[in-house]
Amino acid sequence: MNIDWGTLAGVFGVSLGVTVVVVVMFSLGVAAWARTGHGEPAPEAPRGRHRKVATATAVLCFAACLAVAAYGIDLIVPG
After folding, report:
1. pLDDT for position 39
2. Distances in Å between the alpha carbon of 28 and those of 7, 11, 38, 76?
3. Quick check: 43 and 10 in contact, CB under 8 A?
4. pLDDT value at position 28?
5. What's the pLDDT tens digit per position in 21-58?
6. Closest by alpha carbon to 54, among 67, 70, 38, 39?
7. What distances in angstroms separate CA 47 from CA 19, 32, 38, one per listed residue?
8. What is the pLDDT of the chain when averaged over all its residues?
9. Residue-level pLDDT at 74
10. pTM for this one?
11. Are 59 and 26 within 8 A, CB to CB?
12. Residue 58 near residue 36, CB atoms below 8 Å
């Protein structure tokens, strides 16, 4: 049995990188969602346009995380 260590290291590197990106995107989404005042009201929550931008940022971050997860499931599940 031969193991191609270069390929194994490449797979490890890509999976580690994607994991870090997903965690950062989710964290940014949670931070943006908190800035909008959703959930528990925040007294310093911005009003107007800033709130809409923060909501859009949170939705985009969560959508990116969902897309990565869906792609991973698509790679794993045959069909």
Report:
1. 60
2. 31, 26, 15, 27
3. no
4. 96
5. 999 999 999 999 988 876 665 566 556 788 889 999 99
6. 38
7. 33, 13, 12
8. 89
9. 94
10. 0.78
11. no
12. yes
Task: Round to whole Å and give the CA distance between 54 and 70.
Answer: 24
Whether 9 contacts 3, CB under 8 Å:
no
- Quick one: average pLDDT of 64-68? 97
How many degrees, rounded to 5, is the angle at CA 15 between CA 14 and CA 18?
85
32 C-beta neighbours (distance < 10 Å), count: 20
- Tell me the two tokens of residue 74: 């698509």
In this prediction, residue 44 carries a pLDDT of: 63
CA proximity to 53, closest of 73, 30, 35, 40: 35
Cβ atoms within 10 A of the Cβ of 15, count? 11
